[in-house]
Design a protein that fits this description.
The complex is a heterodimer of chains A (115) and B (113). With 115 residues, chain A is mainly β. Chain A is built from no helices and 11 strands. Chain B starts with a strand and ends with a strand. Classes of the chains: A mainly beta (115), B mainly beta (113). Chains A and B meet through strand 4, strand 5, strand 9 and strand 10 of A and strand 4, strand 5, strand 9 and strand 10 of B.
Chain lengths: 115, 113
């Protein structure tokens, strides 16, 4: 069974540009989470989808970040316009049943560097 | 405000030794405490997890000790091996809402051969 995949693995952009990160969760997983780790700090929650619906957006830093989950399958996280402080590793995770507290499976992350 | 505090930031252990990583939390509503292991270039992977109704859980060389009254939990790696060299994250979540994880800052473990 394929794990959580993320694309791209790395992205280097200039301040003010737009970047879109993609996450493909494990097939059949209803829950999809986005997290971010800024260098040396904790992995921080950004938002949670249950199928195609946003369940919790409390961790989104500001309105420059837009997340979508088309048809309850893959998800995209767009940063527009990117700022220096957006640099970090963006992780996506998925779990199967939205009603249960289950293991979250993480993808390898997208390393974003904003210059 | 960091809700889960993890220490140490880095740890060097000789092969065969015991590695100990500690975490403390503030929110008594947390009721699920996983530990994740991350190798360079990979995503975090679940290592072992515990709920507050038990004080200890062991899986192979990995043990979680949990102290509910002190709001602390720790990971013990017995007979540490060079292959255990990785970054370890503790986390906490609540049995309601989104089940989102609150992570510690991570511990970079190096086991010397």
């Amino acid at each position: 069974e394929a794990g959580v995949t993320q694309f791209p693995s790395h992205s280097v952009i200039e301040k003010g540009q737009t970047v879109t990160l993609r996450c493909d969760p494990i097939s059949g997983h209803d829950n999809l989470y986005w997290y971010r780790r800024v260098m040396g700090k904790e992995i921080k929650f950004l938002l949670h989808f249950v199928k195609e619906s946003k369940q919790d957006e409390s961790g989104m830093p500001n309105n420059r970040f837009l997340a979508e989950r088309t048809g309850g399958t893959y998800s995209t996280l767009k940063v527009q316009p990117a700022e220096l402080e957006d640099s970090g590793v963006y992780f996506c995770a998925s779990s199967q049943d939205w009603q249960l507290q289950e293991t979250q499976y993480f993808g390898p992350g997208t390393r974003l560097l904003v210059l | 405000q960091q809700q889960v505090k993890q220490s140490p930031q880095s740890l060097i252990v000789q092969k065969g030794g015991i590695s100990i990583i500690n975490c403390a939390y503030e929110n008594t509503a947390f009721d699920y405490f996983p530990w994740y292991q991350q190798f360079p270039g990979k995503g975090p992977a679940l290592l072992i997890a515990i709920r507050p109704d038990v004080s200890e859980k062991k899986e192979g060389r990995f043990t979680i000790s949990f102290n509910k009254s002190a709001k602390q939990f720790s990971l013990h790696i017995m007979d540490s091996q060079p292959g255990d060299s990785a970054t370890y994250f503790c986390a906490a979540s609540m049995a309601s809402g989104t089940y989102k994880y609150i992570f510690g800052t991570g511990t970079r473990l190096k086991v010397l051969a």
